[in-house]
Specification:
alpha+beta; single chain; 819 residues; four-stranded parallel sheet; Isoleucyl-tRNA Synthetase, domain 2; RNA-binding; Ubiquitin-like (UB roll); seven-stranded mixed sheet
Amino acid sequence: MSSKRYDRYDAAEVEAKWRERWEASGIYRFQPNGPGPKHYALTMLPYPSGNLHIGHWYAMGPSDTHARYMRMRGYNVFFPMGFDAFGLPAENAAIKNNLDPRHWTYSNIDYMRNQLRTIGMMIDWDQQIISADPEYFRWNQWFFIEMFKRGLAYKKFSAVDWCPNCNTTLAREQVVGEDRHCERCGTPVTRRDLDQWFFKITDYADELLDFSQLDWPERIVTMQTNWIGRSEGASVTFKVADHDDTITVFTTRPDTLWGATFMVLAPEHPLVAQLTTPEQRATVDAYVAEATRKTEIERQSTEEGKAKTGVPIGAYAINPVNNARIPIWIADYVLVTYGTGAIMAVPGHDERDFAFASTYALPIVRVVAEAEADAAAPLTEAEPAAGVAVNSDFINGLPTAAAKQRVIEWLEQQGIGERAVNYRLRDWLISRQRYWGTPIPMVYCAQCGTVPLPEDQLPLTLPSDVDFKPTGESPLKLHPTWRFTTCPECGGPAERDTDTMDTFVDSSWYQCRYLSPHYDKGPFDPALAQKWLPVDIYTGGAEHAVMHLLYTRFWWKVMRDLGLVQADEPMQRLINQGVILGEDNNKMSKSKGNVVDPDMLAARYGADAVRTFLMFIGPWEQGGPWNSQGIEGPARFLDRAWRAVVEIPSSTDAPADPEALRRTTHRTVKKVTEGISRFSFNTAIAALMEFVNDLMKLRETSVRDTAAWVEATTTLALLLAPIAPYIAEEIWEVLGQDGSVHLQAWPEYDEALLVEDEIELPVQINGKIRAKIMVAPDADEATVIAAALADERVMEWTGGKTIVKQIVVPGRLVNIVVK
RNA sequence: GCCGAAGUGGCGGAAUGGCAGACGCGGUGGUCUCAAAAACCACUGGGAUAACACCCGUGUGGGUUCGACUCCCACCUUCGGCACCA
């Protein structure tokens, strides 16, 4: 042991030292062909807002801990980082402060990269990607064109969601909440009719519903499943009386066709205008106008089931099963965006139809009952439950499931319907009327139509001399020259698409690009992709459940179908960390004044302490409130760990058992190993705290001069390495060990050392603990019971009573049941 | 309304059928100091007691079990997600 005195651990100094040394020695460099099985650990890349907040630390520190742990376990770990650099804040800053979004973004990135370095992650910055780099977004454009060629990218004129604050359209996933507000800024969206680009994610709807190859949180699986919203049923075509037109509806209950007593079209349904009779024209026009106004302003305020409104259009449809003339109505409870925008109304067995029929005195017929005999039972409310068909001709008596099948067969025979599946999922709208994104690489030519740019014209970059005005039109459209070009096919005059892509495009495939960020023969190097993809563990927030996490699965499947990747899913395992709240238990926000500044904390306590505390707060997946006093605990713990190793005790005369220390060491290895491997960082740290507490006591005993002490302290450094990488490295160095602690193998524990010579066993009488006995851990049942019954306290409780039963759980307890 | 998760000391949490409250924060008392800070030591769920014994205790009410924070049923509360999806 050196005679040097280490009296204070100076986190700032030590951390700065190791940051430099690590970077100089390149211990975190990506080694694509290095030894060990590959492990690709990925954490969601940050947006370069300009400042790293505590939530970033919470997401990244523990991810880094697990990645470091895997590396010490012998895996060749890739744990990259980059920046999701396109997006509105940069452009809004441009408008507000007259700053170039490019400059704003890239200077933020430089600043944040330094903040990220502070955390102490094992990032190889040579692998970084920045999505706003032309060498990156060029491949967004390449993918777009590939998808266009395969019909997976298409342009459509339709009613779309518009955020009046962000001044752009949004994808359906990006409109949230009851009031249908913009996911980004919270402003309620409106509707606009626009010509926009879509990615055909619905082509993959069924495959996206298959989660069998994923180890993802149940919550996310459920959210995606609900979002995709598959429902099975039939499409049925109704003739319109005295018209050549037909109306097709989607129903999940073809078995209730005999109960369809009217039909309802969405007010926006294209046939409304043609079918409305002259007498009804005025009423219908007024209703349609009102519905349009409502949808634009407040959409459907879903005051559950209340006040369903509608008007008849004067036309009638023919119910194909019984040739009944049923009136056609329009009502805004039927949505033009779902199914065919038209329904057959079965008031007897659908709550909404029942409410509507009740309001407008339309006939209600029972066609499902609990038993055939109940065919005439009155209906006082809708009965959507399954049963048996009644009043339904050839399906009478059939249970609902069989009845559905029978009717579908009949419809198919008649040629008026077929089995059909409907999804709630809509295609992904990716056009954005903004500047700071990937330009859409398409050209519109009067002669040749819509033409993709040839590959040698990629990347199509953004002009820098742009006037940023929140006009609702893309600044690219207002640029004097940018949009004007020549047609790649005929060479004639043509115009570019002036919208840019949704920034969720950037993050849909970025994990592939990290492997070869400067590769220029394709989106990524296929050899590296072959070895390193898919991602093994992906960590990040759950707020992306039906946006990024759905888009990236879709994108991956497209890449697979393009032959770029092999697996079926992009990220094997997903862990969602929780959210760090302010001390007041509210979401951190500047306006609430409850924001915690990680830079300040790192300066005061050290990055190690901040990391450790964040992991110690509680289960990572749960998040929780910050506690500015709470960080003192982990800070003290690290300081004590340091002192346990370096402080020279005044005396080591007190006797102690080195074997007991060895057992403690090995038990700690087991607990920490189990904790980190199941992302239960808090219990791993608690085990280390106990260990350090023990070491603090034992350092003033004779064990300090034994091999057991050396084993304990080196093990401490190793176990601490993934959690608090700086202090672990410093301890490692002080212990005189060679190389970096981060290049060492994770310690193994010896099972034999986990066993105590003698254990304390609680003895219960009738399920209540009354005594404790000392026995050998492997003592047999008879021995244990004998020892228990011989115990003085046990005899007091059993005296004069009959022993009915004796339960011995080896190593855990004894229970004696008496009467 | 539907779906999902969660309710444990003053606080964050631990224990997933076997000693409830590990570990940490906070608190109380003490040591050191001229004093303070830091550090260290002891105690810290409630009742009761001089102290022990003992009794109660994991949202509420039932149940299963030798034994339940843990499993089952019903309910309450909180937080998320979806919400006229035919």
